[in-house]
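Page 42, continued from yesterday. The earlier attempt failed because a stray header line got pasted into the input along with the sequence. Redoing it now with the clean sequence only.
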Amino acid sequence: MNVATAPVLMADQGRTIDPDEEAAFLDAIDRWLERSVIPVVMHHDHGDIWPAKLVDEMAEMGLFGATIGQEYGGLGLPATTYAKIVMRISSYWMAITGIFNSHLIMAAALERFGTPAQKSKWLPKFASGEIRGGLALTEPNAGTDLQAIRTVAVRDGDDYVITGTKTWISNALNGSCFALLVKTDPAANPRYQGMSLFIADKRAGEAGAGFTTGKKFEKLGYKAIDSAELIFDNYRIPADQLIGEVEGQGFFQATGGLELGRINVAARGVGLAEGSLRLATTYAQQRETMGKPIAQHQAIQLKLGEMVTRARAARLLTMDAAEAYDRGDRCDMEAGMAKFFASEAAVENSQDAMRIYGGYSYSKEYDIERYYRDSMLMCIGEGTNEMQRMIIAKQWLKANPI
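This time it went through. Structure tokens are written below.
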């Protein structure tokens, strides 16, 4: 079964998919993981090698259009199904889900806020994977505090001229198009009113001079997907690539897509937590000490009991957020809770799995060390867990005044 051909029922709100179709879709993902992903994970992760063949296969399966509307050639999947896909893949290799997650956040911003002409031009190419990219928000001095960005766009006739640097951008080397957050009015007060979001295309022959890729970052984990700088030096971009073609809306356009991004990170956390549990469970039943499998020792059972509970709770919180997103509800609190809890569950489960493996956990011949390296990123990406706690508390207090 080709995932891209799976029929999907979609509406503007309350997007749904037939349970049998979803099951067939996920089965196709499982077969792809078994056939194409699992045999090559260590090669790409240990060598930090871009998985070009897997990316092509993800495009063929329609994953770059997973949440893009069917009218633009996407699969139009509800967030609940999308989350399940991410969980499945991440339970074997989290990094590759980042390749299409950042891309889909870019697409979501355009689909929500772009003009009809912008959607018709860009979304079909995003959905097919012909154009792949991501979100260019973070700067050397502006991460969680997006309003502190310094990249500036100045109107010049029918164009804008952009100068500045973005950092830690996923898909920076191998992506070709980015939702680029800039300041069109640096003097605006409050600051967010002076921010705008552009579709910046760096494909040869179309981007023009001034858009280059800077250094690639060497990372502890999250290997094979590139994280690098994007540098804009008097980069000239057509005015019709301003999303919505109205200045001052960029902050809300960018952060609006982060709900989907946080659901994705939560789903990745679930995958890592469940994958760590799977590995630890298998190892604990194979490894023997004192004449019996270590799974029969109480100390190991205590860890497994906690791991099972964390993974289950993380999954339920993530599905709760995805269901709210599909209903069209505001879900920054639900997405924040899911992202916070699932990412911490990923870290704790990977650490407990390392302890269950003992000395072998430090060997790169075993997969578990990768889960340990990858998990910490989930606590940082798409807004730190410290920020998630603040968002959750503010929304809770707002809903429960004295």
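Notes: The two ends are 55 Å apart (CA to CA).
Reminder to self: strip header lines before submitting.
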